[in-house]
TrEMBL record:
It comes from the Bacteria. Belongs to the UPF0065 (bug) family. InterPro entries: BUG, Bug_dom1. It comes from Paralcaligenes ureilyticus. Keywords: Receptor, Signal. This is Tripartite-type tricarboxylate transporter receptor subunit TctC. Residues 1-21 form the signal peptide. PROSITE patterns: PROKAR_LIPOPROTEIN.
Length: 320
């Protein structure tokens, strides 16, 4: 009798799990955004939330968890139940986590599953209009001539804003002082109030301030000018040849999430970024939709980890 009960219990359990997975989702889903409100991640999350909700048939509830360049949110999701009801939206600096030289309470490569690269966006180097420079070349000359140690904001140690500035500092042979904040929104406020002189921002977060004339754009980090903001020169053409940094917004779920649920999540988000209304919102803010597959995103992530690792190891300021 005992030999019969155990297999029957196992079959019953598997049948129950299969039935639950087939019903996914049957309640609201939390999308943990790894930045404070007002940043590029936040914009992408809110631009796609309604369409994703329609695709899944359940509300997509956005929760902002800024701090430590995305580590706070990533750690939270990594330790959440792998049932598809807690997702992570994080910027490209996720690829730097394994190389930061700090002890993490989770393993970025094992505890989170890459679902899709939702969108891509370059960064833009912004400065107050009061700063007496109008280009990257003038900025570099100003820093050298005046022997100024410029303060720059970032969304946290190890963020793309931090690494973009550190790479700029190294290539331009100038001195800059890093002041981390809890997200792109707070960093822009620091720029507006004069606490810092520079910030590498995502385009969605930057454009309202640039359009209103409250801040100025000195250059964009991509290899080519953005079709959305063609008047902003690349940093490479504006005074620092060879400079290039690209950004992306990626979707992750806790490791152990059933493959069928991961595929359902991928399909919903991938379909959402193909929606014309979503793409219109993206284009207005200089964001390009992507929505690649989990396998494609995994390969891309591995390449980015290897790309940034040597540079992080050369940083004068240890990001511990």
């Amino acid at each position: 009798m005992r030999s019969l009960i155990t297999p029957l219990l196992l079959i019953s359990s598997l049948a129950s799990f299969s039935c639950h997975a087939n019903k996914y989702p049957d309640r609201p889903i939390r999308l943990i955004v790894a930045s404070a409100a007002g940043g590029g991640n936040d914009f992408v999350a809110r631009a796609i939330s309604q369409k994703v909700s329609q695709e899944l048939g359940q509300p997509l509830v956005i929760e902002n968890k800024g701090g430590a360049a995305g580590l706070v949110a990533s750690n939270f999701v990594a330790k959440s139940n792998p049932d598809g009801y807690t997702l992570l939206l994080v910027f490209a600096n996720f690829a730097t986590f394994p190389s930061l030289g700090r002890k993490l309470s989770f393993d970025p490569g094992k505890d989170l599953i890459p679902v899709s690269n939702i969108a891509t966006t370059p960064l833009v180097l912004m400065a107050p209009t009061a700063l007496p420079v109008k280009s990257v070349g003038e900025l570099i000359q100003f820093a050298k001539k005046e022997r100024k140690t410029l303060d720059y904001a970032s969304p946290g140690v190890g963020s793309m804003g931090h690494l973009a500035a550190a790479l700029f500092e190294k290539m331009a042979h100038i001195k800059m002082n890093h002041i981390p904040y809890k997200g792109g929104g707070p960093a822009i406020m620091a720029l507006l109030t004069g606490e810092v002189q520079l910030f590498f921002s995502t385009l969605p977060a930057a454009m309202p301030q640039l359009t209103a004339g409250r801040l100025q754009a000195l250059g964009i980090t991509s290899s080519k000018r953005s079709a959305f903001a063609p008047n902003i020169p690349t940093i490479s053409e504006s005074g620092l040849p060879g400079y290039e940094v690209d950004g992306w917004v990626g979707l992750f779920t806790p490791a152990g999430t059933p493959e069928a649920i991961v595929n359902s999540i991928y399909k919903a988000f991938s379909d959402a970024v193909k929606d014309k209304n979503v793409q219109t919102q993206f284009s207005k803010e200089g964001v390009s939709p992507l929505g690649n597959t989990p396998a494609e995103f995994s390969r891309q992530l591995r390449k980015d980890v290897e790309k940034w690792k040597p540079f992080i190891q050369t940083l004068d300021a240890n990001p511990n």
